[in-house]
Amino acid sequence: MRTYLDCIPCFFSQALRAGRIATGNEKKLKKLLDEIGRMLSDIPLESSPPETGMRIYEQVSAITGVFDPYKELKRASTEEALALYPALKKKVEKSNDKLLTAIRIAIAGNVIDFGVNRNFNIEAELAKVLKTDFAIFDYDKFKDHLDKTDEILYIGDNAGESVFDRILIETMKKPVIYVVRETPVINDVTYEDALQAGIDKVAPIISSGTSAPGTVLGTCNAEFKEVYKNSNFVISKGQGNYEGLSDENQPIFFLLMAKCWVIANDIGVNEGDIILKGINV
Q1: Going from the N-terminus, what domains does the chain have, and what CATH number goes with each?
Q2: pLDDT of residue 125 exceeding 60
């Protein structure tokens, strides 16, 4: 997905939000915004938002001196999600369609996104998503591919959300490789975050090698690229991964909530809609 003009003020907002979490030093924050302004003036709209996001968050760390501003927020959101895990597992087991319920739970977890919105209620979002109709619902294709595949490549999105991914992984009952970010960026899931969520109990964890807030193949490592190239069933969680992979030729199922107008418009849905969208499937 390309960058839209509407993304530009969002980049400033995200940089300032992350900067304020890292420091209260107004001079550093002013320097950060000045640097982001200079940087954005040279970025082509043809680049994807995660490519720009990678450069923005590198500046946040460099100027504030804080490598992982969202570390404690990530830990807290994962703890909150883990507290809900037993009840959600029971909900899946009691469901008439266990797989669909687990997919809904995984998508509901996508609300845990400090890049787009810090104001969310996980339990309220779960209740809502479990009853909401899908705007795009390629469920039959998903089930067909799941039946035929020997292994799933599951690209994670946010810390905390990965607890809900774990429920879907357990429900699919197929071998899964779970993908995390190489270094901290916003509240995206890293290896450490995935371990806290218990992903290692259900799937091997690999890093994509990127520090972008999304899967930008040009910045990924050789191991991930090889696994990705050979995968016939990719699950991509969240907006950042959609932004990075939506123009790819691989068979991919995107599971996400459209949390901003730009993403919703690009997909062809309304803001707030939930999506199970397959491409090249």
Answers
A1: 7-64 (1.10.8), 73-279 (3.40.50.10880)
A2: yes
